[in-house]
Specification:
The complex is a heterotrimer. In chain A, 36% of the residues lie in helices and 17% in strands. The C terminus of chain A is likely disordered. Chain A contains 14 helices and 11 strands. By secondary structure, chain B is α+β, with helices and mostly antiparallel strands. Chain B has 3 domains: 103 residues, Nonspecific Lipid-transfer Protein, Chain A, CATH 3.30.1050.10; 100 residues, Nonspecific Lipid-transfer Protein, Chain A (2-Layer Sandwich); 131 residues, no CATH class. In chain B, strand 2 and strand 3 form a beta hairpin. Chain B is elongated. The model of chain B has no long low-confidence stretch (mean pLDDT 89). Chain C has a domain of 130 residues: 3-Layer(aba) Sandwich (Peroxisomal Thiolase, Chain A, domain 1). Helix content of chain C is 33%, strand content 18%. Chain C is globular. The chains are: A alpha/beta, B alpha+beta, C alpha/beta. Chains in contact: A-B, A-C, B-C. Chains A and C meet through helix 2, helix 3, strand 3, helix 4 and strand 8 of A and strand 3, helix 3, helix 4, strand 8 and helix 8 of C.
Chain lengths: 400, 385, 384
């Protein structure tokens, strides 16, 4: 792998509120709202944008090539435009793509748009449709499975595992309550844990309604610029250091007697190795993780942070994933709070970037945030993992 | 009486009879219990049987019904009026349901017209000061008396003078005009459901004093809008519901074709990678790890060892048929005999084994009587004992 | 825009023969065939060290009738435990994106794979109808064919394009298609066959329209440093540009080539092309309908505005080696046509175009379009 051609800064972020009731806007209007917020945040106009990136999961809304219609609101008129969709990882793929496009020198300022209006379709049905029509579509139940819960209860004991998953869930909700844009803010208290653990309706096995992500409408827009332009345009640009994407074969055939390394673990291994990160828990100041359910969020903390045994549960139990802990997870509330699927994976680097800039609002971490980790998830257990930095001091590339 | 969003809990139950849609419940036979906690709450038992409705007050907690809904008063009213999202109330545990949830989801919308908050005459009169438009009252000096009888009624005087408006809870002797009517007539007039001329000439409204003033007074006030009725006044949104459908003709290709041919013979065929030797089931053209074509097939199973079990309670639509799947059903992950240890196969479990199934057990396939080389040939797996 | 750039090489291409009904293979089968073809040509592999670690696919969920359409083909494009991103867009854009992966330094070698089966769904027009907003465009029954018909009429008004000239385009397309082992419609026709073929959507006749097609194309791109590992004869990607026009037909001047002109301008600037007529030796345009060939050639600058009809009569397409593959008129699937255009340009530059080989091809263009009436265009410049 060659050295990065030039550095890429994040200079603007815009998000709509996330909710299940956006009947007052059509898709193009919703995109436009987020675009305006991002341009305002970056203090630029559409004229400054060289290229637009668009992504969502169009089979939810059943629109063919939606970027055509959305051009009414995306600002792509007269501009270069790419459309990249990779299922749940779309938002993160868009950020990786923006990084590649700006770093390449082909474009100086790129605007990436992730959006979804899940209310206009059927989410679980849409996800089930990813399976082969001739074999497995008749069996898949969207993204719902209790396999992780089952395995965690086997490994740590039923009571400890259930308590940990619920603690994680309530922690996410507490973070969400600080985020003015979050879709679901229940106001849960830790005292409710036992009650919820036993009375929340079961979706699949021990995966209960309370654990599972929301289905949201919303859009997220981020603006990226070359180092030279970013420094000129923006008072606090933050930087994309590196990213990796790991896909997996077509089917969910990984629940055998032996299980392969998870893509989350593989991604973390490769990314940290090539960047010299020996202890991710120590190095990173915040982790915005794509956690579609409380069980997955907790399990994947171990995978992404390359932990062993019950280290992740201990960190949770010791409060280290809280806002004032050693490594806060999802100050935004994560995916269980807001999940506009085409945008969800972009919210992770967006929220992480805001933490680095210091303007994340009520959910801002009080300690200094210099190193951020963000992940995306989708497909047949694919992962996208990226590192963002507050300062450019990890290398000396100074051109473009 | 405690009100939430302008409505009391008992208003919802008191209006059930008039909102009942008998035709929508001819094939229904259910009881629904409501335990509403908090101020203004209570307990009710609702019986819907073959087009008839019975609503009973209950003493204490209701338990023995097809479905029992437990919620606090504010959440119950909020969700009923559409001011709070039902899904979120349910997800967060603010609404709990014992028994058959589908009763509430499938039957209630068919059984009742939506609840519209009851507008009380007293609410209309008591809000005059807030709704007063001073700019319209230049030079106006009048006293309007209201003498309203019946539920929600009362006696009031509205004083408009020097571009201010004051409400008195008595009927003054020196009103410019006094309007006397049933409280409900007053509400209907105010909300445009009854026309003034008709009301007056039919004797439903009696006016003492200056009739002209009575007519003009309406323009001095903003229209009264009940808290729960706000949606009707808002922008009308265009909403389009459509199910697009495009027929598809999928190719199996020779590899998947072999799989389906096998099913016809009650056989499972896996493809084998010539490089790493792992078996892929259902068979695939290529080994994803080695990236080489897999031309060899091996017969595997038919029995398998269970690794993981998913019991699914959530009813989702089957994209192939559009129908909602019947729940609960059990999905199994298993390793078929003769298959590599890291290749799992997924299928459903015979419902009769749902209570006995455990990881590590051996299962065997159950085939359809008539097999045609489609996914329907394999019905499910069951415990092999 | 951007700094002095290094070059990106196209090392090899492999095409699946297009056909109107590839019922006997699924997408995975088609892509495996071309994977083996390109592996034989280049010796490429997917190992973690030195192999392909980055893949760019191109396909569409609606035509595949599958959510996350790249999920189905992960195995055959080598994406297991590798990076893969999907262009949910006309496939030529995958080249621009793959270019950026290499120029950014993120990866040195990129595998590009596009596929589409128009025959799978009962109607490709119902699919393209879904591109329009549900309340107005869709309800009116707009689809890419009838919208193209509107544009055809506007263009015929502007340029004076006649039935006979459009027929000439189709006859010539078939003549070249016959020499292309990957083309779909190779049956030879005469002017009369085309001019009097039944009306499909006035003024577009059935013979003016590209046939329903299935196909797949893959390519291997590499940095300049590593191209030699895969080929002795790389072709260089030197220019890329795309552009979006307005969505509402009423906001557009349908005969203006607004988007194509801008896409071309940006691609030419990147490649250092000042005058297409003097510097380009071969052109592959995505002509879904006969009128589009002269119209897109105007947009690319091979003749003046409104001169497309004259251009046909003056044998302009022969002069500039336009669509020696037979073009889209000979039948490629909608989302993959760009890669077929690109493949022909690459083969011609390499000197591997067999019977179709033109002389002295040093620089070539591939163009693709999508959206109603060419709302979006992409242009790529390649050279030897």
């Amino acid at each position: 792998m060659a050295k990065k051609n030039r550095n890429v800064g994040i200079v603007g972020i815009g998000q709509t509120e996330y909710s299940s009731h956006k009947e007052h806007q059509n898709q193009a209007e919703m995109v436009n709202e987020a675009v305006r917020y991002a341009l305002e945040d970056a203090n630029i106009t559409l004229d400054d944008i060289d290229c637009v990136l668009h992504g969502n999961m169009e089979l939810f809304e059943m629109v063919f090539q939606p970027d055509m219609w959305h051009s009414l609101g995306s600002g792509a008129y007269g501009k270069d435009q790419f459309r990249i969709t990779t299922g749940g990882t779309t938002g993160a793929s868009l950020v990786c793509a923006a990084d590649n496009l700006v770093a390449s020198g082909m474009y100086d300022v790129v605007m990436a748009i992730g959006m979804e209006k899940l209310q206009e379709g059927h989410t679980t049905g849409g996800i089930t449709n990813m399976a082969d029509p001739l074999w497995f579509r008749h069996l898949q139940t969207g993204a719902l499975t209790a396999t992780t819960a089952t395995m965690m209860m086997d490994e740590f004991g039923e009571e400890r595992a259930k308590k940990a998953a619920m603690k994680y869930r309530i922690l996410m909700d507490k973070h969400a309550c600080l985020n003015p844009r979050a879709h679901r803010r229940f106001g849960l208290e830790y005292e409710q844990a036992d009650d919820l653990m036993n009375t929340s309706p079961q979706l699949v096995g021990e995966l209960r309604l309370i654990h599972m992500c929301s289905q949201s409408d919303g859009a997220c827009v981020m603006i990226f610029a070359s180092e030279k332009k970013a420094k000129k345009m923006c008072k606090t640009p933050v930087w994309i250091r590196d990213h990796i994407t790991v896909h997996r074969e077509e089917t969910f055939n990984n629940f055998g007697i032996e299980m392969p390394e998870m893509t989350h673990h593989y991604a973390a291994r490769k990314l940290f190795e090539r960047n010299g990160i020996k202890d991710p828990v120590e190095y990173f100041d915040v982790f915005e993780m794509y956690d579609p359910s409380a069980w997955w969020g907790l399990d994947w903390a171990r995978e992404f942070l390359l932990l062993k045994d019950d280290e992740h549960i201990k960190l949770l139990e010791d409060g280290e994933f809280d806002l004032d802990g050693k490594l806060p997870i999802n100050p935004s509330g994560g995916v269980t709070a807001s999940n506009p699927i085409g945008a969800t994976a972009m919210l992770r680097p967006a929220e992480a970037a805001m933490q680095l800039r210091g303007d994340a609002g009520p959910q801002q971490i009080k300690k200094k945030v210099k190193h951020a980790l963000a992940s995306g998830f989708g497909g047949t257990l694919w992962s996208v993992l990226m590192m963002l930095e507050k300062d450019l001091d990890w290398q000396e590339v100074e051109n473009g | 009486m405690a009100e939430y969003f302008g409505t009391a809990v008992e208003d919802i139950f008191n209006t059930m009879e008039e909102r009942f849609l008998s035709e929508g419940t001819l094939d229904v036979d259910v009881t629904i219990g409501y335990n509403i906690s908090g101020e203004g709450g209570g307990n009710w038992k609702v019986t819907i049987k073959e087009g008839t409705l019975k609503v009973e007050d209950a003493d204490g907690e209701v338990t023995d019904c097809t479905a029992v809904l437990n919620a606090n008063a504010e959440t119950f009213v909020g969700v009923t009026l559409g001011k709070l999202d039902a899904g979120e109330a349910f997800s967060s545990g603010n609404i709990k349901v014992d028994g058959d949830l589908t009763v509430l989801v499938a039957i209630l919308p068919k059984a009742f017209k939506p609840f519209k908050p009851v507008i009380k005459a007293s609410a209309i009169v008591e809000s005059v000061e807030e709704r007063f438009l001073p700019e319209k009252a230049e030079g106006v000096d009048i006293k309007i008396g209201y003498d309203l009888s019946g539920d929600g009624g009362g006696q009031w005087t509205v004083v408009v003078k020097d571009q201010t408006c004051t409400l008195k809870e008595v009927l003054d002797d020196d009103c410019t005009v006094i309007m006397r009517m049933e409280a409900q007539v007053f509400v209907d007039l105010n909300q445009g459901k009854l026309d003034g001329g008709t009301a007056f000439s039919s004797g439903q409204v009696k006016v003492d004093g200056d009739i002209g003033v009575a007519g003009q007074s309406a323009s001095l006030f903003e229209k009264y809008v009940a808290e729960g009725a706000a949606e009707e006044e808002g922008e009308e949104l265009i909403s389009l519901k459509c199910v697009p459908s495009i027929n598809q003709r999928y190719a199996t290709g020779p590899t998947m074709g072999k799989w389906f041919d096998g099913l016809k013979e009650k056989k499972f065929f896996a493809s084998k990678c010539p490089q790493c030797g792992r078996t892929l089931v259902p068979p695939r053209e290529i080994c994803a790890q080695c990236r080489v074509r897999c031309n060899e097939f091996v017969e595997v199973g038919p029995d398998a060892t269970v690794t993981l079990i998913d019991v699914v309670y959530y009813a989702s639509p089957d994209p192939l048929t559009g129908k909602i799947r019947e729940t609960p059903y059990t999905a199994l992950f298993m390793v078929l005999d003769g298959v590599s240890r890291d290749e799992s196969f997924a299928h459903d479990l015979n419902p009769k084994d749902i209570d006995r199934i455990k990881p590590g057990m051996k299962v065997r396939p159950v085939w359809a009587e008539k097999r045609m080389g489609t996914y329907r040939d394999l019905l499910y797996f069951e415990i092999a004992d | 825009m951007g700094i002095e750039m290094k070059r990106v090489a196209v090392c090899a291409v492999a095409q699946h023969k297009c056909d109107s009904n590839i019922w006997h293979k699924r997408f995975q089968g088609m892509l495996l065939d071309v994977l083996e073809d390109i592996q034989k040509q280049t010796g490429m592999h997917f190992s973690e060290e030195g192999g392909v670690r980055s893949i760019v696919s191109a396909s569409d969920d609606v035509f595949d009738a599958r959510t996350i359409s790249d999920n189905g083909i992960t195995d055959v494009i080598g994406a297991h435990y590798r990076e893969e991103e999907k262009m949910a867009q006309e496939s030529l854009n995958a080249l621009g994106y793959a270019m950026s992966i290499i120029l950014s330094g993120h990866e040195d070698v990129v595998y590009v794979a596009g596929h589409c089966k128009e025959s799978q769904g009962e109607s490709r027009n119902v699919c393209t109808n879904l591109s329009y907003d549900p309340f107005y465009g869709r309800a009116m029954g707009l689809d890419y064919t009838n919208v193209a018909a509107l544009q055809a009429r506007a263009y015929m008004e502007k340029s004076g394009l006649t039935e006979e000239q459009m027929a000439k385009v189709v006859v010539r397309a078939r003549q070249w298609a016959e020499k292309n082992p990957y083309a779909n419609a190779t049956e030879q026709v005469e002017l009369g066959d085309v001019m009097y073929s039944p009306m499909l959507c006035d003024p577009i006749r059935t013979m003016h329209a590209y046939p329903v097609s299935d196909g797949a194309v893959v390519m291997l791109l590499a940095s300049e440093e590593r191209a030699h590992e895969f080929t002795d004869n790389p072709v260089w990607l030197t220019g890329f540009g795309s552009c979006m026009d307005s969505y509402f037909l009423g906001d557009r001047d349908l005969a203006s080539n607004f988007a194509l002109k801008q896409a071309a301008e940006r691609a030419y600037k990147m490649a250092g092309v000042k005058d297409a007529r003097k510097e380009i030796d071969l052109v592959e345009v995505m002509d879904c309908y006969a009128y589009q060939q002269p119209m897109w050639l105007e947009g690319l600058g091979f003749c003046g505005d409104g001169e497309g009809a004259k251009f046909i009569d003056e044998e302009g397409p022969a002069k500039y080696n336009v669509n020696l593959s037979g073009g889209m008129l000979a039948g490629n699937p909608i989302m993959t046509s760009g890669l077929y255009r690109m493949a022909e340009a690459v083969l011609q530059l390499k000197g591997d175009a067999g019977e179709r080989q033109a002389a002295d091809v040093n620089r070539a263009i591939a163009q693709s379009t999508t959206g109603g009436a060419g709302q979006f265009h992409t242009v790529v410049v390649l050279e030897k």
